[in-house]
Amino acid sequence: MPSHSFLRIGRYHDAVRSGTAAHDSDQRYEQHGAVAYGPAHDLVVLVYSAGLSGEKPVALANTDALRDHYEAHPGKLDGHHRGSDDVRRERQVLLVVNTCNYRGE
């Protein structure tokens, strides 16, 4: 997933674009009954990238998508079961979203 490379070199908007493409691909897989490899991971990277890029609407929308994924796939390893680690992970993502310095705010 190119988002990881873009994050490491500070190209945050490119990481958002790549993460969006990964999430869209995951959704197309699931629409055809296939199992995507890492949809929750893709969403976490997308939310994190959007936060660093200052793209608050993208970060918030995909935070909701991440929560929806966890609820829809509680037994899937990538979606995880609802445990303390999952709550901690969601709080970390929300903390990034809420503390990033968004442009224009």
Can you describe this structure?
- This protein has helices spanning 2-8, 12-31, 39-53, 56-72, 84-99.
- It is an all-alpha fold and 105 residues long.
- The chain has one domain (2-99).
- The protein is globular and about 35 Å long.
- It starts with a helix and ends in a 6-residue tail after the last helix.
Beta-strand share of residues: under 5%
Oligomer: single chain
| Low-confidence spans | none
Identify the overall geometry. Answer: globular
Query: Treating each run of at least 4 consecutive H or I residues as one helix, how many helices?
Result: 5
Number of domains: 1
Please give the share of residues in helix.
Answer: over 70%
Task: Set out the fold topology.
Elements: H1 2-8, H2 12-31, H3 39-53, H4 56-72, H5 84-99
